[in-house]
Write a structure and sequence with these properties.
Length: 178
C-alpha cells in the first residue's frame, strides 16, 4: 500500500482564523445541533433523534440510512465512543452505525465528546493543503495526525476547535466557489 502524504499546511494566516470564522454561515445553525450538547455529554450517549439531527446537519443524504439504526444500538455505540479512553475505538466504533462514516463520526466527537476533536471534511482538508486526500483514504493513522495537527493549530492560534472548524470551512467555501 502506497504511503499517503499528510503534510498539513494552513492556506491562510493563523491571525485570519477569527476573521474567516466570523463569516461562517451554514444551512442549519450550530444551535440546532449543539443545543443539548451539555446534557448529551452528561448522559454519555446519543438518542436516535439526536443522531438523526446531527446526521442531517452533516449530510442530508444519510437521513434514511441513519434512521435504520435501532435506538438501543445507537445508545450502545455512542456510549462506548464517548466513554472509552482508546482514541482508535472512539472514532472507529461510530462507523458501525449505518449512515455514519468518518466525517459524520468526527462531527459526533466534535460536538459531543468532552475532548477536542476536529470535523473531517473536504473543505477543512482543502484549507489545510490536503485536498488530494479522499474519503476512501480515511484510516485511523490519518485521523490521528489530522486531530493532532488541528489541536496544535487551535492552540497556536488561541482559538477553540469550533472556531477553527468554521474558519477552515469558510475559507474553502470562498476559495472553491470563486
Amino acid at each position: 500500500m502506497k504511503k499517503m502524504r499528510t503534510d498539513f499546511k494552513l492556506k491562510f494566516q493563523t491571525t485570519e482564523i477569527d476573521y474567516f470564522a466570523s463569516k461562517y454561515s451554514y444551512r442549519i445553525s450550530d444551535q440546532e445541533v449543539i443545543g443539548n450538547a451539555k446534557h448529551i455529554k452528561n448522559r454519555g450517549y446519543l438518542t436516535k433523534n439526536e443522531l438523526q439531527i446531527i446526521g442531517e446537519w452533516k449530510t442530508p443524504r444519510s437521513k434514511s440510512r441513519i434512521a435504520s439504526n435501532s435506538e438501543d444500538f445507537i445508545k450502545e455505540v455512542t456510549q462506548i465512543a464517548f466513554s472509552t479512553t482508546s482514541e482508535q475505538l472512539r472514532i472507529e466504533i461510530l462507523n458501525l452505525l449505518t449512515g455514519v462514516s468518518w466525517p459524520t463520526a468526527s462531527v459526533l466527537l466534535h460536538f459531543y465528546h468532552t475532548d477536542r476533536y476536529p470535523i473531517l471534511d473536504f473543505r477543512a482538508l482543502f484549507s489545510l493543503s490536503c485536498e488530494h486526500i479522499k474519503s476512501n483514504d480515511y484510516r485511523f493513522a490519518f485521523w490521528e495526525k489530522y486531530t493532532a495537527f488541528t489541536r496544535s493549530l487551535a492552540d497556536k492560534a488561541n482559538v477553540d476547535m469550533r472556531t477553527l472548524d468554521k474558519a477552515l470551512w469558510q475559507y474553502s467555501n470562498e476559495q472553491q466557489n470563486s
